[in-house]
Design a protein that fits this description.
- The complex is a heterodimer.
- By secondary structure, chain A is of the alpha+beta class.
- Chain A is 42% helix and 19% strand.
- In chain A, a hairpin with a 2-residue loop joins strand 5 and strand 6 (227-234).
- In chain A, helix 1 (2-12) crosses helix 3 (32-57) and helix 2 (18-30) packs across helix 3.
- The radius of gyration of chain A is 23 Å and the shape is elongated.
- By secondary structure, chain B is mainly α.
- Chain B has two domains: 1-81, Rna Polymerase Sigma Factor, Chain: A (Orthogonal Bundle); 84-158, Winged helix-like DNA-binding domain superfamily/Winged helix DNA-binding domain (Arc Repressor Mutant, subunit A).
- The chains are: A alpha+beta, B mainly alpha.
- Chains A and B meet through helix 1, helix 3, helix 4, helix 5 and helix 7 of A and helix 1, helix 2, helix 5 and helix 7 of B.
Chain lengths: 261, 158
């Protein structure tokens, strides 16, 4: 049975030769015990995927992202202290040392080619922010949704773009609140929404000299650093909706946001 | 690279079993990658290059620790985790808590790479520097251990 179980495991991964796979499929039809064994292996896979996905949802420590982001190519990352066996102490020390400098450090950029650039497009910055903040549970936003009026006044005034907070509930999105970001050395308003499964979708906007008053915005879809973007410009502002790669309905969400914002 | 951090941390966690240690490892790996960026082949997926750097750094770290502990030099394939009790005993001792996180690194890594990252057995073999047959037996063993914890959970529930 062990040899069969190993074969079933390989079958599950698509690693058997065609002939062996056909033999396994015939066996599965005829032998309930073999099918039960396969079902058990699949249940183990489901559990593994669920638990690995949970790890992925853990927030990336801001200090870690900041240190990597601020490290020029060819230079070692400055370590705050030798590796500490006590994880909690190491994390606390890193946050203490680097936490205060975070806002400044995060505005620096490193191009994949290794050269520092002044501007790689605001969407690249937005992707970096989303990678860090979308994993936050308790601290997803700076100002919570129950202060919607304040968010509109504060972020609208800082960014220089008056806006309304779109109601995206028809897509299952709950408004969680807002954050102030910096991209391309300009302030960005980030409005955060969450699906019931925890997926975070953000609407970001900043002022733009090229944002004309076209009757219908032109939507542009891009995938940057693993995230899907739908961006458009209108009325002196640039907008983007960002979600995980492969996120369904992102264009529909963007279209609704464009009407309501 | 920043966008990859959640996945790099997850891979590192399967090695270190500690979030803070994994963060240190990822930070070191990113520093190493930036230092030798000219070695990176853009035709190669960045995540796979980073996984390899993370694993190599971890093996180096474990070797240092084990030498310090008087265990001498050990081959790479045995250096993926700190000295622990037998995998089955260790898992049984933790009962059904932790489940995947309770698996030894030699089993949780193939499980992560194949079930979640979509690696083939051949790709896992190359990354972890173990034979394909070993990959096959390890992922099977990982699944069977998880099946056994599921059985324990059902018995406890009932």
């Amino acid at each position: 049975m062990k040899d069969l179980s190993i074969k079933l495991s390989a079958y599950l991964d698509g690693e058997l030769e065609a002939g062996d796979a056909l033999a396994i499929e015939a066996l599965l039809e005829a032998d309930p015990a073999a099918q039960a064994e396969l079902d058990a292996l699949m249940a183990a896979d489901a559990m593994a995927q669920e638990q690995f996905a949970a790890v992925l949802r853990e927030p990336v420590p801001l200090a870690l992202a900041q240190k990597i982001k601020s490290s020029p190519v060819g230079m070692p990352v400055a370590r705050p202290a030798p590796r500490l066996v006590s994880g909690a102490l190491a994390a606390g020390l890193a946050l203490f040392i680097f936490g205060g400098a975070g806002g400044y450090l995060l505005k620096d950029q490193i191009a994949p080619s290794g050269t520092e650039v002044a501007s790689a497009g605001w969407l690249s910055d937005i992707a970096d922010y989303h990678a860090v903040y979308a994993g936050q549970q308790r601290h997803l936003v700076e100002v919570a949704a129950d202060e919607a009026d304040h968010i509109q006044t504060w972020l609208g005034g800082t960014v220089g773009v008056a806006f309304s907070i779109p109601d995206l509930s028809q897509f299952g999105l709950t408004f969680e609140g807002g954050r102030l970001l910096v991209a391309n050395a300009k302030p960005v308003a980030q409005l955060m929404y969450r699906l019931a499964d925890g997926t975070v979708i953000a609407l970001c906007l900043q002022s733009s000299a090229n944002g004309g008053a076209a009757p219908a915005p032109e939507f542009k879809q891009q995938t940057i650093k693993g995230f899907d973007f739908v961006s458009w410009k209108a009325d002196g502002a640039a907008y983007v909706v960002i979600g995980p790669g492969g996120q369904p309905n992102l264009t529909g969400i963007a279209a609704l946001a464009a009407r309501e914002v | 690279m920043i966008g990859l951090l959640p996945r790099l941390r997850r891979f590192a966690v399967t090695l270190c079993r500690s979030g803070p240690d994994a963060d240190d490892l990822v930070q070191d790996a990113c520093a190493a990658a930036l230092q030798k960026w000219h070695h990176y082949d853009p035709a190669q997926p960045l995540d796979r290059w980073m996984f390899r750097i993370i694993r190599n750094l971890w093996i180096s770290e474990i070797r240092k620790r084990q030498v310090r502990q008087g265990q001498g030099q050990i081959p790479a394939e045995e250096a993926t985790e700190l000295q622990t009790a037998d995998a089955d005993d260790s898992l049984a001792a933790k009962q059904v808590q932790g489940k995947v996180s309770a698996l030894p690194a030699e089993l949780s890594q193939p499980l992560l790479l194949i079930c979640t990252e979509g690696y083939s057995y051949r790709e896992v073999s190359e990354l972890l520097e173990i034979p394909v047959g070993t990959v096959m037996s390890r992922i099977h063993r990982a699944r069977k251990l998880l099946v056994s914890t599921l059985g324990q959970a059902e018995r406890i529930t009932s």
